[in-house]
Amino acid sequence: MLLSYLRDRLRLTGTKYGCGGGGCGACTVMVSRYQPGTKTILHYSANACLLPVCQLQGAAVTTVEGIGSTKTRVHPVQERIARAHGSQCGFCTPGMVMSMYTLLRNTPQPTMEDIREALGGNLCRCTGYRPIVDGFRTFCQISSFQGSSFYCPACVFQGLPPQLFDQGDLLPLDPTQELIFPPELILMAQTEPQMSQRFIGENIVWISPVSLDELIQLKADHPQAPLVIGNTNIGPDIKFKGALHPIIISPTRVQELFAVTRTAQGVYIGAGCSLSVVKALLEGLVQELPEEKTEIYRALLQQLGNVGGQQIRNVAVSVGSHLSPTDRQVYEVVQGLLVPSGRPLWSLLALGQILLNKDFLVGFGKTSLKPDEIVLSVFIPVSRKWEFMGALRQAPRKENALATVTSGIRVMFTEGSSVVKELSICYGGVGPCTVSASRTFFLPTNRPWNEQTLSEAYTVLLDEISLSPSHPGGKVDFRRSLTLSLLFKFNLQILHKLWEMVRTGSLLDLSEEMSSGIRPLPNQLQPGIQVFQPVVNGQSVDDQVGRPVMHHSAISQATGEAVYCDDIPKTDGELHLVLVTSTRPHAKIRGIDVTEALQVPGVVDVITSKDIPGKKFRTFTGVDEELLAENEVSCVGQMVCAVIADTREQAKRGAAVVKIHYEDLPEPVFTKKSYFQPQRTIERGNVTQAFEEVDQVYEGEIRLGGQEHFYMETQSMVVVPSGEDRELRVYLSCQHPTYANSRDSFKQGVLSCQESWRGVWRETNISLCWRRAWFSDLLSRPRSGRAVRCVLERGEDMLITGARHPVLGRYKVGFMNDGKIIAADLHYYANSGNTADESVLVVEKVLLHLDNAYNVPNLRGHSVACKTNLPSNTAFRGFGVPQSMLVTENMINDVAMKLGRNAEEIREINMYKEVSLTHYKFQFDPKNLLRCWDECKEKSDYDSRRQAAGEFNQKNRWKKRGLAVIPIKYGIAFSEGFLNQAASLVHIYKDGSVLVSHGGTEMGQGIHTKMQQVASRELHIPTSFIHITETSTSAVPNTCPSAASFGTDANGMAVKNACETLYRRLEPVRKQNPTGTWESWVKKAFLQKISLSATGYYRGHDLYMDWEKQEGQPYAYFTYGACCSEVEVDCLSGDYRTVRTDIVTDIGRSINPSVDIGQIEGSFIQGLGLYTMEELQFSPSGVLLTRGPSQYKIPAICDIPLQFNVYLLSDSDNPHAIYSSKGIGEPVLFLGSSVFFAIKDAVAAARAEAGMDGPFTLDSPATPERTCLACNTDFTQKIPPSRPGSFKPWALNIP
């Protein structure tokens, strides 16, 4: 593939490996081709991980390095994403840059819709997308920057609120200065004859014909050989499923496959035309032809805009499922529209013609074509008068996701009437191939299109499309409901069109209430507002503390020059490591046969537990955890052995033939049954007695699913032998280097290694750190003496590393009729997986935050870490708090519903109001919590919008709006006091430059940038003098993990301490020459033999928690916040849109507002994903089914709030942290639950309209499936429930 060619052969590592399947956009490049027919250059974005190098003959490929660099000239696209603070970990940034760059090459002055579409195939886990959009918005021809986040230094002097970046001095975009298409490629295309090509690889022969006759002959000679143009199916199948195709035919140069011919009856589209080409063609036809002739074209466009990202649409072919039974990205379009058209839709074969009807598609990705048949083109007819088409779909994500259900419906009416002449209905997603509802569409024929006819059709349809409760993909009730509701949506469309065309007394137009069923959800992005405190009057211009300073690595990330773990150049003789994991959830290992693996060419060794000298386990949180399973496996994905080879491909082939012999043990456990110790309980007041004295008691529960970290850079390590004393330099993507570095991670008698660390925003399995470090030590020493590299594939990473703990929360709450909660008893069951890892610490933090912002006088909590046969779950941003508080807030919500009041009223009644003690007897002042709450309601205009939402819901039957305001009180720092210390090392060089080392890991959260600002203030010099070196245990030993939102607090104080020491040392020199420069003082100090190097140390807070006494001070302080979100929900499909979000947070005095606001926005969007869309699914045998972006959906640009406002609380101080700041990395993630509760509010409105009041169950995440079923519309009520225990579900219900 092009990606490996760029990275391994050309050493162009700016193009990143994110998923390997075209689902994340990290590997985006621009491909340019000369079109001899039109003498134009075609530029399009594409995923390098899917582009075969063999296919790029005559093309120019532009990577992020090619458009600009710090060594030459930074391109405006690179500058603007950096200046707008649109880069945090930076791993996705090159892909974002290339998507935008390609758009600008084609459209120098794009619209916001162009930008949104261009970035639709790019994922980001850090920023929340808003700053990326704001940076690229500056390229729009007409932009309103009012209220959006641009920083202008003059604002402060003019008395205006400071902004995040100044768009006045951005580099201008000059299209005339872009790279030209290589003239030699134009000359080659014009003069050189086309010759067939044949590339012979180790396992595959790639053939590229140039004529149709040659293609036909090749297909006749090799009928089983797939035809590949877009490679959106064959490539992933080879990579992830191990599919073997000895011969591949690539007809990208057969011109007949790309021809487009228009006739009066319709248009013939070449089978090789990409979806982007088809989309542009259909858009032109819709504009040109009369409306009555474009029904099918407009229906197709509805689908095409949602198939894949822009990069996929640029290469996926228009009829991929016909050209070859592949390209599943196009499959849903074909199944939903072309089949039910009912017209002579002909696919022209090289050997004849075939009718594209319901019999054409015979399975998922399979057609009725014979192996040697080839599709030349597809004919799409114009529609006729009185003929209507509808293409409707529902997908797990609004865009760039394969549909759960698609529908293609066509109806033909008798002219001038509403009598049905012809009807066809087809569905995708309810069977292995397209399902034609033949019995249903015969029913309305020759009958008027009215409610009675449709009512009968629903009954027949429900009986005709029946799914087994164990149907692959699950969501059976939802899928069946969608078949009805999508038909109903089509019905509403038709009723409106008939009224427009007939306008007789017998036909009435849709009422406003009913028309909501076909009105699309809002999708127009609006500029957001970001408000923060200005710096104090008189602060030096060189003092950058409190100013929105750009991330120190942003430019290098945007240019592709930032070096990540797998970007480190390979050393001579370097080996590659691939892990072999268990395929059984609970079994004894009877033997491991590595004979065949060792015979694979290039394989050097296979490491099993027997090869580990000395201690084979590590004790963590009091529980021994094996490095490699020796006698027994306890989950699918547990590491059993490792294969090392000369190349990654050889190691993978060796791993594939390792044979592990198992003896299955009794039924594995996937939910709560046994527990890791200790279990924790905490109580204040007398809960049991209080329940006897309240007006009402209610019991409820909520389930919260797990969440995959989905950091863009997968877990990686590079280990290089260094020096003469068996030293190692270890590069490891980890936030706790010292844990992996500690002596007992390695075999006895070996000196601890020297390590350097690079990281991206991750908080993941700590035990995995020492496992990889142990591997590195073991393999890089006597067994090989060579460097070792291990980079997990996305699917491996998701399988092995664990996720956020799924939690079952149960509660009993006693309250008065006025809304005051008197007693609450909460029980938390966290699914920990097969090892303890940090689970006990997580469930402790769950209990410490169960009160959230509420003063419940009688409060009891009990939490346990359940031991199951799933991969071990682990630390994740928030560390149990998002699970804990969701249960509490759901309890508050249920109390409100029992009393028939808004949840916000109950929240206000029960909030801490004055200086109080928490349930663990820690005193705090909630003043700023209340300020956040009040300002949030004020800034969001909550009261008037609440009233407006009520009016909206009364007028709209099928769309409902909901609002929620959620507070948070989040404890900062480690409850284990020794983890709060930090150290630093600062050097001043003779030229005045400063090198700062500290113990924090840069994961994108901006800790390096903030340390630069701290050093700048303390040394009184500009930040340009200061360089932050990568975190290294050889420079700063005994580091504590960068976690608990305490990295800046601890390391900032350590850097401050070192800089203060150095500045004091320079005091005599400064006094001797008070008008001198920094450089002159430093030079003079050196001549006077004054040490210019100092260590810094911060002891940290002495925090603790005594679980026996149930009291302590586990946190240094609290970060407060409140968030108001409003959503609009489609009750028929469960889809929703976050209309607006307003966040107010108290973070003291921000050291860097741009970094902190970026953390707030990114954390919120990650929380939105947790609570509304990210869903881990396990098979009944414990196999993780969601192992990549095609199955596991994180928020994309289409999911961000349409208006996203962030306000930092003004006039706030915090004496417990550096410069009166506060930690902010984790707290706001929970505020993403405001979207969950807004959805629940909207669902409650829908249920109330159906006569259903009171509390109801809506588990997290509130996916479209759960939302739709909870709305309990007429259509969901028609679905008979499956009897539990009568079938084996497709996926487990976790927790």
Describe the structure.
The protein has 1295 residues and is α+β, with helices and mostly antiparallel strands. Helices cover 30% and strands 22% of the residues. It is built from 39 helices and 47 strands. Strand 15 (405-413) and strand 16 (420-428) form a beta hairpin. Helix 18 crosses helix 38, helix 32 (1007-1019) packs parallel to helix 33 and helix 37 (1233-1249) runs parallel beside helix 38 (1264-1271). It is globular and about 95 Å long.
SSE layout:
Layout lengths: L1 H8 L18 E8 L4 E8 L12 E3 L1 H4 L8 H8 L9 H14 L5 H7 L11 H8 L16 H4 L25 H9 L5 E4 L4 E4 L3 H10 L12 H8 L5 E3 L10 E3 L3 E5 L4 H14 L6 H10 L5 H6 L4 H4 L4 H11 L7 E4 L2 E4 L5 E3 L2 E2 L7 E7 L5 E8 L10 E9 L6 E9 L6 E2 L1 H5 L8 H14 L11 H27 L9 H4 L14 E2 L22 H6 L15 E7 L5 E7 L1 H4 L4 E5 L9 E4 L2 E4 L5 E2 L5 E7 L2 H9 L2 E6 L9 E11 L2 H5 L4 E9 L11 E7 L4 E6 L4 H5 L12 E4 L8 H15 L7 E4 L2 H7 L6 E9 L5 E13 L5 H10 L9 E10 L13 H19 L3 H8 L5 E2 L5 E2 L2 H13 L2 H14 L3 E14 L9 E7 L5 E5 L8 H13 L6 E3 L18 H19 L1 H6 L5 H10 L5 E6 L5 E3 L4 E3 L3 E14 ...
Helix pairs in contact: 3-6, 11-12, 12-15, 17-18, 18-38, 27-28, 28-29, 32-33, 36-37, 37-38
Instruction: Tally the helices.
Output: 39
Strand runs, count: 47
Question: Helical amount among residues, as a percent range?
Answer: 25-40%
Provide the structure class.
alpha+beta
Query: Could you give the distance between the termini?
Result: 39 Å
The oligomeric status of these chains comes to single chain
Q: How many whole angstroms does the radius of gyration measure? A: 31 Å
Largest sheet strand order:
21-25-19-32-29-30-31
Catalogue the unreliable spans.
143-158, 320-330, 744-763
Tell me the major beta sheet: 7 strands, mixed
Please indicate the percent range of residues in DSSP E strands (runs of 2 or more): 15-25%
Q: Report mean pLDDT, rounded to a whole number.
A: 89
Overall 3D form? globular
